[in-house]
Amino acid sequence: REIADLVAFATGSLGEFLDRSLESPHLKSLVLANSLYGKHGGPYDPGTLFGLLFHLLGGGPQAKQGFVGHVMGGMGAITQAMATACAARGAELRTNAPVKQVLVSAGRAHAVLLEDGSEIAASIIVSNADPKRTFLGLVPAGELDPEFLSAVRGIKMDGPCAKLNLVLAEEPRLNGIDPDADALQRAQFTLVPWLDGAQLCYEQARQGKIAEQLWVDCLVPSLIDPSLATPGRHVMTCFVQYLPYRFNDSSWRLERDRLHRQLLRQIGTSVPAVNQSLIASRLYTPLDLESVFGITEGNIFHGDLRPDQLFFMRPVPAYARYATPLRALYLCGAGTHPGGGVTGAPGYNAAHRILGDLRRDRGLRKPVTT
What we know:
This protein is α+β, with helices and mostly antiparallel strands. It has three domains: 2-54, no CATH class; 93-156 and 323-365, FAD/NAD(P)-binding domain; 161-297, no CATH class. The chain is built from 13 helices and ten strands. It has helices spanning 2-11, 14-21, 25-33, 50-54, 76-88, 131-138, 146-153, 183-186, 195-206, 252-270, 273-276, 286-293, 345-360, and strands spanning 99-105, 108-114, 119-121, 125-127, 161-168, 188-191, 215-219, 234-241, 278-284, 329-331.
């Protein structure tokens, strides 16, 4: 019974499941808003039902299914805490030091070459970059099997989302919200279409077009974390989908300003403060997410969350346990199991795989001399 349910959830469509299970279109949209966040596929596409399961994989300190937390001080507080913990254990951290290439000798990764020409030798190299960036961009051509490279090229990426950041001179309140709602309730809301509208939005993005009404997930973190804004101001982040990574007959250079204006109009219809009190805004298109943050094709999950790219097939079959075809080179990012979402699970699992390999293979502890 459990296997049958898992197969049904892995292959079925979210829309059909909701149509069978619920009557209220409002409840259907509520579930939709939290299930297909950041992934490909409209609600009626096969395989989208798995998004419902994936976004319930949280837990938090209370082990509550679907738990979502806010990082006080912003997401940078996580990396700062990690940096502090590493420094306390003697690790040396380098920033603003882009890696140009992973150096390989006799099938083993042994150093990284930085863009400034310097080399850092290591007995173990761990890449938090996405699989395509690692294997197609950082590993030298000719070091990997062509069949493996073909599988990597086939990873579905073409990020379907954008991010819009706003600074406002007043709290951005949603029209019609309960006047007695507390700050936590006011801090998050989603402007999401009905199921059919979401399906149409995805179909247009798949055809290289931008729909007239987009799906916009809004968060006002300054309501629960005042340190993120100066007194009297608020920040609002908006996650936008579905969008094309590539256009059929245009480009992001031509479309980004038009999309920016479209989003401000759409959000302003439901959140008047966007029209009245906007101080600044910044849009990151899928192409911007790639060029600014180094995420291949702007996919925030380092590869779409779909059944054929999860579990033992993430990032590709036969290499789903953090080790790579090159000895001493490992992956630890969202492109590995169990995927993205700032869970820390890929890095945790990768660390344990590396520790196990070091115990089993003493040769990994010795740096390579070239």
